[in-house]
Amino acid sequence: MLTRIDHIGIACFDLDRTVEFYRATYGFEVFHSEVNEEQGVREAMLKINDTSDGGASYLQLLEPTRPDSTVAKWLDKNGEGVHHIAFGTADVDAEAAGIGEKGVRVLYEEPRRGSMGSRITFLHPKDCHGVLTELVTSAPVESPEH
Ligand code: V0V
Ligand code: CO
């Protein structure tokens, strides 16, 4: 089951300036930031709200780290803007398998590492009415030591 909008991915040329726009305009603060070399992005997660499934919804601001990355390619073609949406689920493997059986191309054989230790995969935008769609399972919440 897909149970939340986990994030909206927004491609930008300058992460620091874009973070500052979201802070100054809306008051959203950076919850987490990291570089994901595999995906070729530097990213900032701005938490917007908690969700009823125990997760949260974020804006994910993305700046490319190298010219051959998917986000750099997309920015060259489209300029800044909404790059993808991500649905949250407790079981990304099962969701990807089930959606794949419906004829939608799942881009990765196995989910890969996403923001904050999550596991992610993507659905091809051409099979999703033009929307690059990500599926996310958050990293398990660390239980306190006994
Ligand atoms: C490309 N297309 C898109 C698109 N990117 N359509 C909607 N939204 C997008 N973001 C269209 C493009 O306009 C072309 O249509 C067609 O798909 C083929 O695109 P292309 O430019 O030739 O590019 P490809 O085929 O080399 O790559 C497209 C795909 C690639 C979707 C396969 O971007 C990909 O693998 N994306 C998944 C990984 C990713 O995006 N990572 C960055 C976020 P026309 O012109 O032929 O009609 S990382 C992230 O979100 C993380 C870490 C996280 O959440 O934790
Ligand atoms: Co994403």
UniProtKB/TrEMBL annotation:
InterPro entries: Glyas_Bleomycin-R_OHBP_Dase (IPR029068), MeMalonyl-CoA_epimerase (IPR017515), MMCE/EMCE_epimerase (IPR051785), VOC_core (IPR037523). One of its GO terms (molecular function) is methylmalonyl-CoA epimerase activity. Residues 4-138 form the VOC domain. Gene3D superfamilies: 2,3-Dihydroxybiphenyl 1,2-Dioxygenase, domain 1. It comes from Streptomyces spinosisporus. It is an enzyme of class 5 (isomerase). Its EC number is 5.1.99.1. Keywords: Isomerase, Metal-binding. Belongs to the methylmalonyl-CoA epimerase family. PROSITE patterns: VOC (PS51819). It comes from the Bacteria. This is Methylmalonyl-CoA epimerase.
